[in-house]
C-alpha cells in the first residue's frame, strides 16, 4: 500500500538527475533549444547512463526518439552497443505515437523502434484504448 509520504515523494519529481534518489523522472523535448537547459542535461545524463551500464536497461517511453548529446554516439547506437556488450536491453513505446497514427503527433521519422529491433533489442510498440 502506498503511503501519503511516498505519494508526496513521487510527486516531488523534477527534470534533473539526482544519483542519491532511487528513482529519477526525466524527460527530453524533441527539439533542443537554448531555452531548454534541462533538456540538454537530461540527454547528457541519460546517454551517459546507457553508455556505462553493465547489467540492464529497461526503457518505457511514450514518444521514442533517438537523442544526441554531442559527446558520443546517439541513443540508438548507444543502446545497440550496450546490447552487443551483453547488457540486457528492452524498450516499450506507444505504437500510435511512434507510428504517427491519426490523433497522434507526427510519428518517428527516424524509425527508432525499427533500428533498435534490427540490432536485436526487444522493442515493443504497445497500442492502447481508453474510454471517458
Question: Could you describe the 3D structure shown?
Answer:
β1 (56-61), α3 (75-84) and β2 form a beta-alpha-beta unit. It contains five helices and three strands, in the order ααβαβααβ. It has one domain (4-126): Endonuclease, Chain A, CATH 3.30.870. Strands 1-2-3 form a three-stranded parallel beta sheet. It is 35% helix and 13% strand. α2 packs parallel to α3 (75-84). It is globular, with a radius of gyration of 16 Å. The chain has 132 residues and is α/β, with parallel strands linked by helices.
Quick structural summary:
The chain has helices spanning 4-11, 37-52, 75-84, 95-99, 112-118; strands at 56-61, 88-94, 123-126. With 132 residues, it is of the alpha/beta class. A 3-stranded parallel β-sheet has the order 1-2-3.
Structural features:
single chain, 132 residues, alpha/beta, Endonuclease, Chain A, 3-stranded parallel beta sheet, 5 helices, 3 strands
| Helix and strand element order | HHEHEHHE
Order the strands across the largest sheet as they lie in space: 1-2-3
Number of helices: 5
Major sheet: 3 strands, parallel
Summing up helix and strand content along with how strands pair, one would put the structural category as alpha/beta
Strand content: 5-15%
Query: If you average the pLDDT, what whole number results?
Result: 74
Overall CATH architecture: 2-Layer Sandwich
Rg to the nearest angstrom? 16 Å
How many domains? The number is: 1
For the termini, the CA-CA separation is: 27 Å
Low-confidence stretches: 4-8
What sort of overall outline do the alpha carbons produce when their principal axes are compared?
A: globular
Summarize the amount of helix as a percent range.
Answer: 25-40%
**The first-level CATH class name:** Alpha Beta
DSSP E strands, number:
3
CATH topology type = Endonuclease, Chain A
